[in-house]
Amino acid sequence: MDITTQKRNARKFIENWQNRGHEKQDSQSFWLQLLRDVLGVEEPEQFIKFEKKVQLSHESFIDGYIDQTHVMIEQKGSNKDLDKPIRQSSGELLTPFQQAQRYANNLPYSERPRWIVTCNFIEFRVYDMEHPNSEPVRIELKDLSKDYYQLEFLVDKSNEHLEKEKQVSLNAGELVGRIYDELLKQYKDPNNEHSQKSINQLCVRIVFCLYAEDAGIFGKRNMFHDYLEQFDVRQMRQALIKLFKVLDTKEDDRDPYLADDDPKLAEFPYVNGGMFSNEDIEIPSFTDELRSLLLSKASDEFDWSEISPTIFGAVFESTLNPETRRQGGMHYTSVENIHKVIDPLFLNDLKNELNEIKKTKQLATLKKKAREFQEKLANLTFFDPACGSGNFLTETYLQLRKLENEAIKLIYPNPSLDVGQAKDIIKVSIQQFYGIEINDFAVSVAKTALWIAESQMLEETKDIFYADWDFLPLKTYTHIHEGNAVRLDWNNILPNYVCHYIMGNPPFIANNARSKKSQGSSFGSMTAEQKEDRKSIFGTKGNVLDYVACWFSKAANYMKGTKIETAFVSTNSIVQGQQAVALWEPLINKDKIVINFAFQSFKWSSEASTSGTVYVVIIGFSYYNRKIKLLFNNDQKEIVKNINGYLNDGPNVFIKARRKPLNTILTMKRGSQPTDNGNLILSEKEAQFLRSKYPALTVYIRRFMMGNDFINGKKRYCLWLKDANPSLLRKYPEVINRVKKVKEFRLNSSKAATRKKAETPYLFDEVKDCKSNFIAFPIVSSGNRRYIPIGYLNKNVIAGNKLFEAEGATLYDFGVLTSNMHMAWTRETCSWYGPSYSYSNTIVFNNFPWPTPTNKQKVRIEKTAQAILDARALYPNNSLADLYDPLTMPKELLKAHQDNDRAVMEAYGLPIKGTTESDAIVYLFKLYEKLNNRYK
């Protein structure tokens, strides 16, 4: 946003909020508008959290909290003076700032705010908690158009360095992609496997050299550039071959006359680490364009020392991996998402431990504790068994080294006097990090990313001591192993008795989409080989499971008898429907695995320009039962008693498919399936044509609805020939032609059952029409809706196989099924089709524990249910999609639903006030457990 727009928007903001400001009604609108219109946040709803829970002697709520910038907001109404104490529910008198301070003191160290802002719609007061005794900055609303810049800290992540690293890394990836493309053109047989591996390895070496010359690893800047610049195009190939040979040879073993023959080549140090050891790689000839690209664009004009190894490793791998190149775009897991895994797994505890050490006042004790902490860091081992380009390992290494540097400052308070050798001072090593990756190129990239991370952190430690330590030759070796993690014995990589934490992002591969090769960051469906992998873990019982489940089972087996803790990212499917039962029931009930923390379903960003939307969960589990269990929902953190296989705070109950409903006589069946290749289905125009041409056919033309038709009010029809007279139908060539096409389509099916149905091509594959009116329940519908749109249909309407039919359902049944209680149960137990509900009659409906209302309560639900139908009737020309859009839902319909929700909750015996959806789910699970035991 440019300055002119920002000032103009600030003036509009002032005009809008002058003489306004009710604490309860206006706070959220005020801050959302400020962030969006004045400070340029595109999705402020995702940026700021309102009503963040904090536990005092009672449960309290922080008005506003911004995670990325560590800002806490205490908002008061315009009638409140920010200087005057306000009586709290506890009876204390506290100013808004003191109230915010109390909240801050009761948060974990990792969540305590850097900034506290108090506001009353008239004035902002900004307190910098780095300088708690300093006077706050005061900004008045009326002056915001000239003072808005003083609020930039709200959105400036102060991560300008991180943002710069990110952009540099992406730019570096683009450069590598261009180099790769030009190199590939020069290979004699670019599709040859040896050529493919060679070009990948060549790019790894070039990138390392470009980074090494800019980071000073080679001894001085521009060494790689200055060496290659001596040679013309025809000599470049041999120049690289000679360089790689020298980099892999110790100085003492080199030709003693090398300095005379080529002094610039002789200056290069010995690298070690195996990066340059393979002399069999194929290096093609260069072109003028390629030489210019390498020397000018990649070397002269670009500084590689500022890349983020965490991001660049993944960008580098995705840029050169043929699979991801075919998709286009760059793929990497954001640093923010990596921290959602590693922070609650171990990093927050380590940070809190260091903060406690810093409070030690006695110097000798402080140094002793800091040394012990450093030794602890140096003895932790981390394992990513689907490491891809190593981004989880790399980021973890960087974070551990940063903590170590903090400890080093405590151990050596006079660093310029205490300087020694790096090996005596730095204890944390990349040898503590282990990984498995199936893609050979990703293995090389992961090793390189860790080496770059090691180099960068050495520079930070050198700055503490003003030391001049050499990075080369590489003295540490990375434990990144190439192989199939599902088939390998992990103990052969890292014995479980020396492992502390397992983490990562195993492949997102389902049963029914396209597959990818790399285990570190794939999307798609299982290959035959991967299905065999899954079978080797689960047998045939695992056929419902996604590929990612293999890592959970392998980790659980590996962890037995240890205190290892694991945290994996997974598609949310493994905590839904049949998958939740197949995976988590044996792990929790039989193996006694405990889920210690979890992020409920959220949108996963791999920062890929073309990647589809993926909804994931993060699950931290072990055999070790943490005292405090954390459940995250949209970044809201809650301390809970138990986290079950559906990732809710409830008992370890598993909802299995059931043939009959648990405690209702109402049944729900799937509608009629055509399997006709569209030949029995008619558009509105086609139906009108047949009716007008053949009036006798009208009785056989019925309204037809799939879930999408039902929700969006689309008009389609079908030929429903169930009781048709054959001699009558033969008079209508249009009908006979359609039936003939159905027969041909079914005969060509690979399924024997479908080919059998070709014997009756005039009928739907499955005939499930209703004899009376019924409730239609769409199988798939948008998860953005609070309520799944359901409704009554006439018995003459043919529901397709994407609608469930509840025949003979009463108003009471309708009221319960459209209530927030049933929706809470649905959200927890249904599968999800991307961001949409995927309802199941055998799992969701048949297991739903219905209430047992009194007659009075039942009558009330019937009335509120009818009120919902009446509210819909006020908008006859609107589809259910229109009526149930959360942005456009009519107020009459919303009120009717809210009244119905209260009536149903009352029938369950739940208090109307204070009952959250989480409370409702826990209650329903307990009721289900009770009913299930009774009806077994």
Describe it.
There is one protein chain. The protein is of the alpha/beta class and 936 residues long. The protein folds into five domains: 3-158, tt1808, chain A, CATH 3.90.1570; 161-307, no CATH class; 335-640, Rossmann fold (3-Layer(aba) Sandwich); 656-671 and 772-936, no CATH class; 678-767, no CATH class. Helix content is 45%, strand content 15%. The chain is built from 36 helices and 30 strands. It has a nine-stranded mixed β-sheet with strand order 11-10-9-12-15-17-16-18-19, sandwiched between helices. Strand 7 and strand 8 (137-140) form a beta hairpin. Helix 31 (820-829) packs across helix 36 (917-934).
Runs in which pLDDT lies below 50 for 5 or more consecutive residues are: 324-331, 513-522
Query: What's the N-to-C terminus distance?
Result: 63 Å
Structural class: alpha/beta
CATH level 3 topology of the largest domain: Rossmann fold
Which CATH class of the largest domain applies here?
Alpha Beta
In CATH, the architecture of the largest domain is 3-Layer(aba) Sandwich
| SS field, number of helical segments | 36
Concise synopsis of the structure shown:
The chain is an alpha/beta fold and 936 residues long.
Task: Spell out the key features of this protein.
single chain, 936 residues, tt1808, chain A, Rossmann fold, 5 domains, 36 helices
List the helices and strands and how they pair.
Layout: H1 3-17, H2 23-38, H3 44-47, E1 49-55, E2 59-66, E3 71-75, E4 86-87, E5 93-94, H4 96-105, E6 115-119, E7 123-128, E8 137-140, H5 144-147, H6 160-186, H7 193-215, H8 223-229, H9 233-247, H10 258-261, H11 263-266, H12 288-300, H13 309-320, H14 322-327, H15 335-358, H16 363-378, E9 382-384, H17 391-411, H18 415-418, H19 422-425, E10 433-437, H20 440-465, E11 479-482, H21 490-493, E12 501-504, E13 508-510, E14 523-525, H22 528-538, H23 549-559, E15 565-571, H24 577-590, E16 594-604, E17 614-622, E18 629-633, E19 636-640, E20 669-670, E21 681-683, H25 684-693, E22 701-705, H26 707-712, E23 716-719, H27 726-729, H28 733-747, H29 752-757, E24 774-778, E25 780-782, E26 791-793, E27 798-799, E28 803-807, H30 811-817, H31 820-829, E29 831-833, E30 836-838, H32 841-847, H33 855-873, H34 880-883, H35 891-908, H36 917-934
Parallel strand pairs: 3-6, 9-10, 9-12, 10-11, 12-15, 13-14, 16-18, 22-27
Antiparallel strand pairs: 1-2, 2-3, 4-5, 6-7, 7-8, 15-17, 16-17, 18-19, 20-28, 21-23, 22-23, 24-26, 24-28, 25-30, 29-30
Helix pairs in contact: 1-2, 6-7, 6-12, 6-13, 7-20, 8-12, 13-17, 13-20, 15-16, 15-17, 16-17, 17-20, 22-23, 30-33, 31-36, 33-35
